[in-house]
Amino acid sequence: MENSFDSPVARAPFAMSKAPELPSNLSDTSSNATSPVAGSSRVNVFARVRPLLQREEDIPEVVEIINDQHLVVTNGPNDREQRYQLDHVFTPDATQQDVYSLLEPSINDCFDGYNTTIFAYGQTGTGKTHTVLGLNLWEMAEKHAESMEGGGVATFDPQEINAQEEMWGLIPRAGRAIFSEIAQQEKETEGQVKFEVKCTYLELYNERLYDLFKEDQDDESRRSQTNRGLEIRQDKMQGVFVPNATSVPVHSEHELLGLLWEGAKHRAISATDMNAYSSRSHTILQIQITRKPISDVVLPKYALIKRAKLNIIDLAGSETMKRNKISKFTDQRIAELTSINQSLSCLGNCIRALEKGSAHVPYRDSKLTRLLEDSLGGNTKTTFIVTVSSIQKTKENQNKKKNRKETKIQLHATLVF
């Protein structure tokens, strides 16, 4: 029996396209469906329910956490409860460290040569970027600029970042863990291994791939109709790669955050009723780690060259046209929402094909899945973190069509971040 469920916890971002159907190790336990043991799949799905905001305290909640693997969702007083099982459910009081602790083993697997991919998925305003980054780089940049005479230029301030260490999300914590492990291995081998860490930061906007580290073009020219974006290539040595993307050597978590600071200024965002900084694109941070022995006298476990990629993807915020109370809904915005939903559908199709063991996996149907081809199938680790708001308003936004059968998303064991 196929392991999937129709979940109101996460919906397709836009109703013009078919909602993505994602195979799942989550199941509706109110039916006769069975689900695998949590964590038994190569692809894991976590849910993180964010705390209520002060203005939301009087709004009815429709999501109830039963335990660390089960959620109950109700559509209204006359609708039956729906129970769902996930690999883990984070309660609203879960800290950033709590989330990172469950993901740390798969991040550490990069040092054993595994490509690891972490997705963050959820409706706009449910805490995706908070979970991934923990720092609002756009807001910080604006405050810096406003405080300087004549507008000024925002600069990265490591001391300000350090002061918010408790709020660090997955990226800064993963960066710190990576460089800590490198230092430990270099000490253990007495400098007989050499590490190289490089970072690329890409944006997928309207199915075109852009380099967020590139500074020689303004936003308008980067996203003009004549700019076709970056190409994706593949070879036996490098795997899947983007030949013209900027790859920057990184030596500490603060260097990594400084690069993200620069990249954040180029990302496509727009204000919505749900969030002042609603992303209109997927961002893909890729950290490539290479370890090479530089001496014949080295411990056996360090004698081989090992390469791995850590992919952290902040998927575009899911938002409906009805909820977006923008003065005029432009053709550009419609194209953005359509593109977002199509790429999520392609991602779901690939994950489902992988779980079924299909001979053909449609990676080439989207640039998102094409870019991640060597990090989803085979000897890889994949996690989805689904961010959730428990209030009625958010859930109504997720139930965006009158016909609920058309709006339901079959959530897969890969939606986590």
Biggest sheet layout:
9 strands, mixed
CA radius of gyration is: 21 Å
Q: What percent of residues adopt helix (DSSP H or I)?
A: 25-40%
Report the principal-axis shape.
Answer: globular
The whole-number mean of residue pLDDT values reads 74
Q: Strand fraction band?
A: 15-25%
Low-pLDDT residue spans = 1-41, 270-278, 394-417
Helix vs. strand class: alpha+beta
- What distance separates the N and C termini? 27 Å
Count the E strands: 19
How many separate helices? 12
Give descriptors for this structure:
417 residues; alpha+beta; 9-stranded mixed beta sheet; 4-stranded antiparallel beta sheet; 12 helices; 23% strand; globular; disordered N terminus; disordered C terminus
Task: Map the helices and strands.
Elements: E1 6-7, E2 27-28, E3 43-49, E4 63-67, E5 70-73, E6 82-85, E7 88-90, H1 96-108, E8 115-122, H2 128-132, H3 137-146, H4 158-163, H5 170-188, E9 193-205, E10 208-211, H6 219-222, E11 233-235, E12 239-241, E13 248-249, H7 253-264, E14 269-270, E15 278-279, E16 282-293, E17 306-314, H8 331-356, H9 367-371, H10 373-376, E18 380-388, H11 392-398, H12 404-407, E19 409-410
Parallel strand pairs: 3-7, 3-18, 8-17, 8-18
Antiparallel strand pairs: 1-19, 2-6, 4-5, 5-6, 9-10, 9-13, 9-16, 11-12, 14-15, 16-17
Describe this entry's structure for a reader.
By secondary structure, this protein is of the alpha+beta class. 28% of the residues lie in helices and 23% in strands. The chain contains 12 helices and 19 strands. It has helices at 96-108, 128-132, 137-146, 158-163, 170-188, 219-222, 253-264, 331-356, 367-371, 373-376, 392-398, 404-407, and strands at 6-7, 27-28, 43-49, 63-67, 70-73, 82-85, 88-90, 115-122, 193-205, 208-211, 233-235, 239-241, 248-249, 269-270, 278-279, 282-293, 306-314, 380-388, 409-410. Strands 3, 7, 8, 9, 10, 13, 16, 17 and 18 form a 9-stranded mixed β-sheet that branches. A 4-stranded antiparallel β-sheet has the order 2-6-5-4, with no helix packed on it. The longest helix is centred in the last third of the chain and has 26 residues, at 331-356. It is globular.
